[in-house]
Design goal:
The chain is an alpha/beta fold. It has 10 helices and 13 strands. Helix 4 links the parallel strand 3 and strand 4.
Length: 376
């Protein structure tokens, strides 16, 4: 009755967790939700053209602005090779459709973005490990090099150069996902890997969800000349074009003289929130987990001192009014127990304190129970 690929389809754990966030007093460390107070006020004054069909590649003026920004970063991204997406998740789907058949190897980091894994699995990918210093053993390499989801790690300058050279020399298509680059709070080389390639095949994508408003569902991609026409045809078959109204709102925002100030305010706000979260982690989870303070992005990646399956811990946490993302979901193959991703951007200081205190107590209770069984 259904296609064969449906047999490998798994529900998105993050979407299922987000469905419980409207419960009163629920503290969410789960999704990468912006702070509510940092969402922009919107005054809707729609031009008639924003209520009409538009080109599949996107609004020409918005594409030109994105192109200018990408070329400043060093990317070979003229306007005619920039596409506006219905969220960067659509970009992952389009690239997967272009490259992945059942059994196609796809090189990914471990751990990596779980929604990308979900899409690649849907089309039948076989995952191989991505090594930053060696040629990927796959026709497609997917990376999040800047403030990676889930780890928050930022690839070094040497790693970026090595991967660009390996992909170019080995005929591997680089797929670079870069939604967090503007949320930088410390030193990190953020020059895109794709900007270091001089030839070869590549796709670079970003998002307006973290810097503006996720509900508008708008992202963008640029691609090498050999890939872009096929990606446009694939998008035509999916949704014809992204929302023209959302594109108008984003274009108005990013061309406003105050846009650079907004980016500075975002980085300053989230830096303070990150630092407060880090201090709260030390108060409550020292001795229970280890972590590194991320130089950017929206997440802390915790490695528990005891290999707890955090998928089982999640149910108990939700019962106590706290949501987080189990780390096991981010691994392409065998899950690594005892890891979790905590978002620090959404909860305020009081909610953070309450939520981390609850998680710490659940972990201590589990440790005592485990030790009790061992002693018995």
């Amino acid at each position: 009755m259904f296609s064969r690929r449906i047999g490998s389809l798994r529900p998105s754990p993050i979407r299922e967790i987000l469905s419980v966030l409207d419960r009163p007093d629920m503290v969410s460390f789960a999704g990468g939700l912006p702070a509510p107070e940092m969402l922009p006020p919107l005054s809707l004054s729609a031009a008639p053209t924003s209520l009409q069909y538009g080109p599949s590649e996107g609004d020409p003026e918005l594409r030109a602005v994105v192109s200018e920004q990408l070329r400043i970063l060093g990317l070979d991204a003229p306007t005619e090779r920039v596409m506006i997406l219905s969220g960067s998740q659509q970009g992952i789907d389009l690239v997967a459709k272009l490259f992945v058949d059942p059994g196609t190897p796809v090189a990914v980091e471990s751990p990596t973005y779980l929604a990308a894994l979900q899409v690649f699995r849907l089309y039948g990918a076989d995952f191989t490990s991505l090594n930053w210093n060696n040629a990927p053993m796959a026709p497609l390499a997917y990376v999040v090099p800047t403030f990676a989801n889930p780890t928050g790690r930022c690839a070094t300058d040497d790693e970026r150069d090595s991967l660009a050279r390996a992909c170019q020399d080995g005929g591997v298509t680089l797929f670079e996902d870069d939604p967090y680059r503007e949320l930088a709070y410390g030193p990190c080389d953020r020059k895109p890997v794709a900007a270091r390639m001089h030839g070869g095949s590549w796709v670079y994508q970003g998002s307006f969800s973290k810097t503006f408003a996720p509900g508008l569902r708008l992202g963008f991609l640029a691609a090498s000349e050999d890939l872009f026409p096929s990606l446009v045809i694939l998008k035509q078959a999916v949704d014809l074009h992204s929302s023209t109204l959302s594109q108008q709102l984003v274009r108005s925002a990013i061309t406003d003289p105050s846009w650079s100030n907004r980016l500075d305010e975002l980085a300053s706000f989230y830096r303070k929130r990150r630092d407060g979260f880090d201090a709260a982690l030390h108060r409550h989870l020292d001795g229970l987990a280890e972590w590194e303070t991320p130089a950017g992005g929206l997440f802390f990646w915790l490695r528990l001192t005891r290999p707890v399956d955090t998928r089982a811990l999640l149910a108990a946490a939700i019962d106590r009014g706290v949501a987080f993302m189990p780390g096991e979901e981010f691994f392409p193959d065998r899950p690594q127990l005892g890891t979790m991703r905590l978002n620090f951007s959404h909860a305020d200081a009081d909610a953070t304190e309450r939520g981390l205190r609850t998680l710490a107590q659940l972990l201590r209770d589990g440790t005592e129970k485990h030790e009790g069984v061992s002693n018995t």
